[in-house]
Specification:
4 helices, 30% helix, alpha+beta, 161 residues, 4-stranded mixed beta sheet
């Protein structure tokens, strides 16, 4: 999270819950989250981890943008927690997402397009009658380098397999 200036809120079961632009507001929060998500996918691919049944490890990533309510919860071990409808929509993006894809909401898609972010929108899914839950799949554009993985590292890693 630190590389992308994102904040890990908590881990819930097998869900890694993080945010960007909170507690400190920033205009490029959507880009940072998408880049982090794409690099997380790459890291999982590189580990070669398998599920107990031998299948490839897959995970879903859901990203949504919007205002939230933040509060500190707990007396013995205080931590920041996020509340609100936009947290719920982000959860729906993850839960209804396509495995091994970065799923973004229509709101996040609009922010990425406004800022001319270097990501390619692949497809749109209408999950419900609510346009807030329309989903778009995203991938990195050619020539856009990761903050973590350098092109020469990818070539070396591919040569080892």
């Amino acid at each position: 999270c630190d590389i992308y200036k994102c904040y890990k809120v908590e881990t819930i079961g097998d869900c890694y819950f993080c945010c960007s632009g909170c507690p400190n507001v920033k205009e490029n929060h959507a880009e940072d989250l998408v880049e982090m998500a794409l690099d997380m996918q790459e890291a999982i691919r590189r580990t070669g981890l398998k599920r107990p049944d031998g299948e490839e490890l897959q995970f879903r990533i859901g990203i949504h943008s919007g205002p939230v309510i933040a509060g500190v919860v707990g007396a013995k071990c205080p931590r920041m927690h996020l509340f609100g409808v936009n947290v719920q929509i982000a959860e729906e993006m993850e839960q209804g997402g396509v495995p091994d894809c970065v799923n973004v909401s229509n709101v996040t898609r609009s922010l990425l397009l406004e800022r001319k972010a270097p990501f390619k929108l692949i497809t749109r899914f209408d999950e419900a009658d609510d346009p807030r839950t329309d989903m778009y799949l995203i991938e990195r554009q050619e020539g856009f380098e990761s903050r973590v993985f350098k092109p020469e590292e990818v070539q070396v890693a591919e040569a080892k397999f």
